[in-house]
């Protein structure tokens, strides 16, 4: 939209802000000169729209309005300074240029505002679907939290007894177990907080394998209750990806929850998450299931918003996932799995090689 895609080569140059006013001024001066020396029949001034389009990309509304006003002033000034050519044609050309500049500024500003609104709406929707997903997982998360809490109770009571019985060594060991369980509970809460955060965080050098392991702890209990064998086959050495962990976790959770739903009515209930390096060095994440499969699913539309084949479905999970993956420069796709079920893949651009541990 607007100057963003139409001027890709100028982007890096103009991105360096101090250069922007100088470049715009030079461009305006060149157009002004050309407009003044050529005769009145040639509407050189319409080229000011280029300046307006660049300004929309880098300036706020006021800045764009000022740039457009300056261009229009130069157009009129040049009309009065130009000596050669027929005046009526000059008036018409001048008017056309003025209208072109004004309309371009207006439309480009409107497009930029719509784009910003769409981004905002999408971020809100992503947040809503994250919270909805949490709602689906509440029971198993409560269970997951209950385990360390119950262990803390047990060890606390034991420590009290050891102390009363004059055995501080054993009491100390119980206290260590309490600390370990408390850490486990707080780790889980930390991960949940990420999902409920309103705005997504920032991109970091992400260890995808580690993120998948963390995510699996959120769904393991749910899978266990549904008698699903949840497995991970993680590549030994995977490069890191420059990515936002909250958003990528949202994609992984969407795919896993879909897979769990797909196998729910089946005899065999397998869900496997695989990571591997792709052919062009990217990271490929696959969520494969032995579920109902993709018969009756329109593969061309499966990632569209509100596409669902489930009576209670919202059809937003895959749409949000696609927008997240694409905003990371990756791709998402689906294909039937062998011998049955579905496989959903997404890729992330890889950065430098990472370890399997998490140091972020
Ligand atoms: N693992 C899967 N196996 C079979 N079909 C799937 C799978 N994942 C997604 N789908 C299809 O894609 C549709 C859209 O999924 P999604 O966007 O997550 O929305 P929802 O889960 O609310 O229906 C689902 O309704 C289903 O038809
Ligand atoms: Mg879904």
From TrEMBL:
Organism in which the protein naturally occurs: Mesorhizobium huakuii
This protein's name: histidine kinase
Keyword Membrane appears in the UniProt entry: yes
PANTHER family cross-referenced by the UniProt entry: PEROXIDE STRESS-ACTIVATED HISTIDINE KINASE MAK3, SENSOR HISTIDINE KINASE
CDD domains found in the cross-reference section: HisKA
Reactions it catalyzes: ATP + protein L-histidine = ADP + protein N-phospho-L-histidine
Keywords: ATP-binding, Kinase, Membrane, Nucleotide-binding, Phosphoprotein, Transferase, Transmembrane, Transmembrane helix, Two-component regulatory system
Histidine kinase domain: residues covered: 140-352
EC number: 2.7.13.3
UniProt xrefs under Pfam families: HATPase_c, HisKA
């Amino acid at each position: 939209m607007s100057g963003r895609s139409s001027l890709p080569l100028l982007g890096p140059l103009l991105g360096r802000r101090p250069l922007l006013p100088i470049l715009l001024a030079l461009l305006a001066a060149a157009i002004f000169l050309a407009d003044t020396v050529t005769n009145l029949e040639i509407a050189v001034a319409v080229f000011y729209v280029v300046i307006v389009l660049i300004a929309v990309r880098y300036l706020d509304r006021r800045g764009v309005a000022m740039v457009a006003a300056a261009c229009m002033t130069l157009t009129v000034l040049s009309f009065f300074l130009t000596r050669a050519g027929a005046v009526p044609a000059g008036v018409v050309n001048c008017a056309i240029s003025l209208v072109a500049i004004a309309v371009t500024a207006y439309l480009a500003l409107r497009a930029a505002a719509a784009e910003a609104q769409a981004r905002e709406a999408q971020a809100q929707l992503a947040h809503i679907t994250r919270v909805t997903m949490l709602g689906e997982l509440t029971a198993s998360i409560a269970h997951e939290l209950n385990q360390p809490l119950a262990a803390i109770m047990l060890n606390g009571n034991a420590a009290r007894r050891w102390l009363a019985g004059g055995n501080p060594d054993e009491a100390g060991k119980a206290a260590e177990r309490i600390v370990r369980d408390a850490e486990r509970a707080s780790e889980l809460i930390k991960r949940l907080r990420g999902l409920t955060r309103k705005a997504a965080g920032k991109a970091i050098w992400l260890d995808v394998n580690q993120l998948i392991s963390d995510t699996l702890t959120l769904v393991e209990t749910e899978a266990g209750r549904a008698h699903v064998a949840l497995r991970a086959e993680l590549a030994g050495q995977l490069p890191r990806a420059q990515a936002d962990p909250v958003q990528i976790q949202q994609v992984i959770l969407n795919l896993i929850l879909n897979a769990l739903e797909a196998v729910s009515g089946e005899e065999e209930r397998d869900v496997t998450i695989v990571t591997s390096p792709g052919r062009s060095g990217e990271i490929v994440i696959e969520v494969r299931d032995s579920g109902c499969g993709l018969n009756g699913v329109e593969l061309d539309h499966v990632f569209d918003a509100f596409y669902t084949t489930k009576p209670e479905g919202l059809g937003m999970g895959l749409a949000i996932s696609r927008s997240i993956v694409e905003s990371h420069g990756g791709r998402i796709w689906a294909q039937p799995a062998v011998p049955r079920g579905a496989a959903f893949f997404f890729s992330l651009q890889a950065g430098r090689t990472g370890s399997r541990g998490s140091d972020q």
